[in-house]
Amino acid sequence: FKGGDTCEYLLSSGRFLGEKVWQPHSCMMHKYKNSEAKNCLIDKHVVFIGDSRIRQLFYSFIKLLNPQVKEEGNKVSYLQSKSAFILQDFLWYPEVNGSMRQRIKSWTEGSVAKPHIIVAGAATWSIKIHNGSNEALTQYKINITSIAPLLEKLAKSSDVYWVLQDPVYEDMLSESRKMITNEKIDAYNEAAVRILNSSSRNSKAKVKVFSVSKLIAQETIMKSADGLHLPESSRDTNAMILMNVYCNKIMKPIDGSCCQPQPPLTLIQKLAFCFFTLSIIGYLIINLIHRNNFRKNKSCTDLESGEEKKPAISTPNVSTLEMLLHSFCKLGLIMTYFYLCDRANLFMKENKFYTHSSFFIPIVYILVLGVFYTENTKETKVLNREQTDEWKGWMQLVILIYHISGASTFLPVYMHIRVLVAAYLFQTGYGHFSYFWIKGDFGVYRVCQVLFRLNFLVVVLCIVMDRPYQFYYFVPLVTVWFMIIYATLAIWPQIVQKKANGNCLWHFGLLLKLICLLTCIYFLSYSQGAFEKIFSFWPLSKCFELNGNVYEWWFRWKLDRYVVFHGMLFAFIYLALQKRQMISEGKGDPLFSNRVSNGLLFISIVSFLTYSIWASSCKNKTECNELHPSVSVMQILAFILIRNIPGYVRSVYSSFFAWFGKISLELFICQYHIWLAADTKGILVLIPGYPMFNVLVSTFIFVCVAHEISQITNDLAQIVVPKDNSTLLKRLLCIAGFFSGLLLFSAMQDQSRH
After folding, report:
1. With contact defined as beta carbons under 8 Å apart, do 691 and 362 qualify?
2. Domain Cas1p 10 TM acyl transferase spans what residues (predicted)?
């Protein structure tokens, strides 16, 4: 199913999601703000010509530019609206006759300035005045045949739309309009479509038939005040469709895929395509050579004994080069799928539409599945590996359901999802602090391994999908926080557990470091100027800018600014208690004495519910986001205590969630392009017309791809990041040179575009 000709689909087909949200077939419709509409239509002349229905469409259209406009009168022969150098006219021509033809002809002859956009349509007056006679229909066909060539001529340099007649609600029509029946309207529409299509069949310039209004009217005409004119919400939808048809190719909104041409390949994308192609060819050649050598060794026989000799090696050697090419070969095929899904206009895309059932039913379903896959943990420590994988897994699945269902529009769900994102960052602080504190390994190898595993997929997607690094905001966030944790612990004096055990004063030294970190975080969170100065220097600016500034990066960083510190502090306290044997982590044992454990459990449950009640009662997203960094840790700590204080609960985990937890980063990043669409703004449609089946198929492919990318990343990390320091430093210099050149080239491309 090809999603390429989206303009035709936008003008002719679609369906309602709920009561007011219109979903065009195969593409996404952008909701234009008045500032965007003005930018698109600046210095443009827009003309609406027709009857009272066209006049209502005219008013809905100009309200997109100026919401304060009020409708005037019922019978106005001429209306004009000027807004920011945009001229909009309505011309009253209720019948397709000689007068309308003369007006259209004046535009073709140049005696009157030619409009950039013409929206025309009429028929109901002809039915009404002539009492629905067949002679009137015959005359209508003659008249529209005479103006069709003129409209076609205008279509060579202007956008011309012929609006078909909407159905009426016959039971509500007044006595003077009873002759306007849906049967008559269908006959007039059929004549208009046949004549306009036959006129432009052999011409590149085409009059666009606006037939989608009929489908919208069929669902909403019963809400009409008089049975003839559409309710305001339906007219607004028609105006928004017109805006999308004309403006999407100019403004190129991310969430407006209708009528958008496929973006041209950049030079970097072409080079990436060549690289992956050469990798595939190289892998096939090496694999073929190895297979031929293996067959020759296998076919060697001992001529004296007549027995087959065993080759020295029973399977072909897998060289580092072959493994490298094999990984890039698979990655190239996967990236081709990414590009086809979200850049090539090959597959269809649809807008999200939130309902409570679309979010909560899948949540209940995966929770039940997770409980069925309960197993015993290998160790019973607090936040052991299986438990943290499980935690990441169920959180990631909830976040995926949140994204595909469009639940961000429901504030209580949004606030709880913010806690899940904070919990990921909490684990970042906890995990990396624990490693450095216990191992004392501050070597370059460890840093490079972590940075490679975090950033490899995102860097490849930045190149292939032509997106900035900051677009995948979560990876820059965890990368920067990892470097902050590393710098905090690695700078002099390096305080680790082994050193601190010999002298308790080192614990105070570490606490002093953490206090300094907290002070810096507090200062930067309330000093946007200082933060922006730090990240405005090249090459940091190139990495962290989005839409020409670092405000988005500052907002994302500020939203969870304290939670990594909380994770580090929790790790420090927990490891100190563990070292002094103040907690019991045996199988089936509660963490503390029964009295203390029960008290902490009660406080944790109350805290957990208190946060949920507060988040559910949020009325203003901005105000709640301001409080979130300070209070989100309350629910995170409550969950950790509830999950770990009871010995039995700490001793089991869900292998189902843990499996997803191991590929949670890949799932989060891959969803942008091969599960969702239009950079997460919509939903990818592989199988149109079957929403549930489509989600099942696209999800299966999406999860398989994420799992495969996780394996590719692990394989490449072993090759690209060697343990030998001298080799590693040489590769770091090469990689630094490569990315410096890439950033410089990208900056030059941006300047040439501007």
Report:
1. no
2. 251-732
